[in-house]
Amino acid sequence: MSDVLASKEMSYFVTYSSIVLLKMVDMSPITSFFRLRRGVFSNPEDLPLATVKDNKVVTNDSVVERVRRCHLNDLENIVPFFGLGLLYALFSGASTSTLLWHYRIFTVSRLLHTVVYLYAVPQPARFLCFLAGFGVNVSMGVQILMNNFNL
Length: 151
Prior knowledge:
- The protein is mainly alpha-helical.
- The chain has helices at residues 2-5, 8-38, 62-91, 96-118, 125-149.
- The protein is elongated.
């Protein structure tokens, strides 16, 4: 088992998973930055005395909501990648090159997705970024099943 964990495939998985997980983690401070900058807070206890806007909670600021939706989209896509990517490294039987390209495409697609989402780049840019990452997850899942159930 230690040979498997020390393999190139696992090293690639750890590297690319770390990149996308850190990207996802970074969305929290980005959300906080925009909340502070725009004086938008969704809970009464979060209202700082210096920036209170009529002492009201605001839950519909378009900029803050855009960042939050981007973060939610990460949760919906990176979490499955983490599970599928690990299983792919361990059980897919894919060549190292194929595995590496799956991880690279997913990582680049998520990084680009964030850029086009936060800067409101017109469609179909965001959809294409999403589709590339989604396609990688589906591809890995299908290959895992095919390799382990002889489909």
